[in-house]
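User: Run a structure prediction on this.
Assistant: Running it now.
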Amino acid sequence: MTGKERELSVEERLAKAKKPGEDAKILHKFYGGKIETVPKACVRSFNDFSIWYSPGVAEPCKMIAQDPELAYELTCKWNTVAVVSDGTRVLGLGDIGPEAAMPVMEGKSMLFKYLGGVDSVPICLDTKDPDKIIETVRLIAPSFGGINLEDISNPKCFDILDELRRDCKIPVWHDDQQGTATVEVAGAINALKVVGKKFEEAHFAIVGAGAASLAIARLLLATGTKPQNLCMCDSSGILNLEREELKTKYRQKWEICEKTDGAGKRGGLKEALKGADI
């Protein structure tokens, strides 16, 4: 802190924390949403629509009909993803519905474009039924190069992702699982390098057992963490083989119990953290 700076009061900190939300209410209304569709191809005059639309467009259609892979060369499919949500687990807001989820899905689409140059379409579904979500994504998949699942409640998010990854012809990604897990495990790898400890020898404690935490546990194990070095704790205590109520109630948690047995630990958060490197 320099001599010219002063520590903010509690009231000033609270006001600073509230400002993005206040600005968001004004600016979302001003812009009427955060994204739009604009033409990519050149339109010199209305006559150019004979190329981009009828009759010229029939030629690339016939080419793709003969070889569907050409859709990646002749359409926007190669660089377009769908951001799909049912609005059941939005941020810390919970189940707020598909309409209320739209600002978040628009924001994710904006991030795709601004940070990665990837075009994105927000799609909020008016159903909470996992089978209907799976079927809908399957049906829209031909229009996209990838699917980003977003803010879908657990445990159904696991089955939706696993089922779509099994049979979709395009990549399917659940940001709350794989996105968070990728960042967390990458951070763990580099943190252990800094302190000179081998990844496979490190002991991990994961606080919470939601979609992100379970995905982190899965990726840690897939990356080389020894099962006996991984302890996960939910609101009821450490996930271990004594938690038999999870067998039918929460299959994904029980899988962690079977694989790790809570690193041999019993108890709650205090016991889970004991001896952990991360």
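The radius of gyration is 24 Å.
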